[in-house]
Design goal:
Blueprint: E1 3-6, E2 12-15, E3 28-34, E4 37-43, H1 59-70, H2 94-108, H3 112-125, H4 132-145, H5 149-160, H6 164-167, H7 174-188, H8 197-212, H9 222-253, H10 257-270, H11 275-286, H12 295-308, H13 321-337, H14 343-352, H15 365-379, H16 381-393, H17 398-406, E5 414-422, E6 429-433, E7 447-451, E8 458-459, E9 464-467, E10 471-476, E11 481-486, E12 491-492, E13 496-497
Parallel strand pairs: 7-11
Antiparallel strand pairs: 1-2, 3-4, 5-6, 5-9, 6-7, 8-13, 9-12, 10-11
Helix pairs in contact: 1-9, 2-3, 3-4, 4-5, 4-7, 5-7, 5-8, 7-8, 8-9, 9-10, 9-11, 10-11, 11-12, 12-13, 12-14, 15-16
């Protein structure tokens, strides 16, 4: 990507001097459960900290190009024999003029390695030049264009220590030179793999000053300068976000999750609405789930926040990252919680506050199931008891459980719906189903009540019966049927109609 290079003269030109490696990372994730915990696998194109930079910082590159279009080419110094105005800078002699001219030619030819060599010669021969600060600007540009961002930062730091508006005070050239230094230092930090504390401090200072800079370069219209300034401010803010995330990103690369979490929490205090900060904070928390399962809930909270902010304000590096992270969140949440119920509410909660409340917790699937079972048992105690019994009977060791724990032992009160009476009139066995609350007939018999004496009539259809002190006596798994011996006097809800007496045909009397 080519960017504008601010020259030391009155104009700007295009060149490859300020290269910002933009983020291209996609976020692919998958979750695999292991026991009660899940493990996350993060697949990124690269794991460099530069990939956490917002694409919005690249707006600064557009600003640089815009400013380049507003101005022209390079200026040359006055010749030694010329008679400059008293306030103007001047070269010492023809030798300095020639070196300055060589550097200008190098820059125009994009021969930045040679430009650095010529600059070194210039600095060695003329250390106290009137153009020493202009020379520093050349150095900054050449180092940056020659892919030596650390040196560009170091040179920028030395120049900025003297106050840019004081040392680069030319009425025509000063604003362009000042922007060169600030913009280059701001973007150079993105290209230094392991910047020093001084380099970070220089980039931070440059980005802060770039965000506040409002001296229009000569030749720029008010409208164009307003546009460029907005773009440069965006770049500055993006770089400051990047710098704030650096400690956490470094810790993540070392898999020091706790340190990363603390660093991203600090960054979130500075940038509470940043999608990137929330996302990386959530990652660092999810990575600690093995040692602390509570981190799962707060990690998903932060991931939810990263996709809940206004899409227009999202600072994800990849435009597709929001969609990918949202899909990942839904998959992980569903696998962990046992369904996606509550996910929308989670996003609303996360949007309202950067950090969850101290007692925030997302129930796991097992916890959610236990809660449902408890609520079900409170509402349908008889049915819950039967479901527990049936679950053990239908298990692999169901027969063993029946023989050892149920056969011959009285069971608590149970309830069922009459399906069939055997025989239909004056039966001695009633077959019942124990349907779920939302089940509809026809029902399948699951329990056979074997009575101590036949009933005296025909039981009504679909009776709901309750019995106590029943004693299981037999069990078949296929088809499922549990036989329980019970006294008919201990059955509640029986309603019967008299059985129709059989018709008796008496033979006609014989005639005498």
């Amino acid at each position: 990507m080519s960017c504008a290079v601010f020259d030391s003269g009155t104009r700007l030109r295009r060149g490859p001097g300020l290269r910002c490696r933009a983020a291209k990372s996609g976020v692919g994730c998958e979750a695999v459960f292991g026991g009660s915990l899940f493990k996350t696998k993060w697949e990124t194109i690269q794991e460099e900290r530069v990939h956490h930079l917002s694409t919005k910082i690249r707006g600064g590159l557009a600003a640089a190009a815009l400013l380049a279009a507003l101005t022209g080419g390079w200026t040359r110094p006055a010749r030694a024999q010329a008679a400059p105005a008293p306030a103007e800078k001047k070269v010492k002699d023809q030798g300095e003029y020639d070196i300055y001219n060589d550097v200008t030619k190098d820059m125009l030819a994009k021969n930045f390695a040679k430009a650095i060599t010529d600059l070194d010669t210039w600095k060695q021969k003329y250390p106290a030049s009137d153009y020493q600060y202009d020379r520093s600007v050349f150095y900054i540009q050449a180092y940056s264009a020659n892919k030596q961002p650390a040196k560009a930062l170091d040179e920028s730091g030395a120049l900025m220590a003297k106050d840019l508006k004081t040392v680069l005070n030319d009425r025509k050239n000063g604003p362009s030179q000042q922007l060169t230094v600030l913009f280059t230092a701001t973007t150079a930090i993105l290209q230094v793999p392991t910047p020093t504390a001084d380099e970070v401090a220089t980039a931070t200072k440059a980005a802060q000053q770039l965000a506040d800079y409002n001296t229009k370069p000569e030749g720029a219209s008010d409208a164009d300068w307003a546009t460029a300034r907005t773009q440069l401010q965006t770049a500055a803010k993006g770089a400051l976000l990047y710098i704030a995330m650096m400690p956490g990103t470094d810790a993540m690369q070392k898999k020091d999750w706790a340190t990363a979490e603390a660093a991203f929490q600090a960054a979130q205090k500075q940038y509470p609405d940043s999608s990137q900060v929330a996302y990386q904070l959530g990652r660092s928390e999810l990575a600690q789930q093995g040692a602390n399962p509570a981190k799962i809930s707060i990690g998903m909270y932060e991931i939810a926040r990263s996709v809940s902010v206004d899409p227009a304000k999202s600072d994800f590096a990849d435009p597709n990252a929001r969609t990918q992270v949202d899909a990942y969140l839904k998959r992980v949440y569903t696998q962990y919680h046992g369904g996606d119920d509550g996910l929308d509410q989670l996003k609303q909660q996360a949007l309202a506050s950067p950090a969850p409340l101290p007692d925030f917790h997302i129930m796991s699937g097992a916890e959610a199931m236990r809660k449902k079972q408890e609520e079900f048992a409170q509402k349908y105690p008889d049915l819950a008891l039967w479901m527990s019994v049936k679950a053990q009977l239908t298990d692999t060791n169901g027969q063993e459980y029946f023989d050892s724990s149920m056969k011959g032992a009285a069971v608590p009160k149970l309830k069922g719906t009459l399906v069939e009476a055997k025989p239909a009139c004056r039966p001695k066995e009633l077959r019942l189903a124990v349907p779920l609350p939302d089940a509809k007939p026809p029902y399948t018999a699951e329990i056979a009540l074997r009575l101590d004496a036949p009933l005296t009539g025909k039981p009504d259809d679909n009776l709901e019966l309750i019995w106590t002190d029943g004693v299981p006596s037999a069990f078949t798994k296929e088809p499922f049927l549990l036989t329980i011996d019970v006294e008919k006097a201990k059955i509640e809800g029986l309603k019967m109609t008299p059985c129709t007496p059989p018709v008796t045909h008496h033979p006609a009397p014989k005639k005498k």
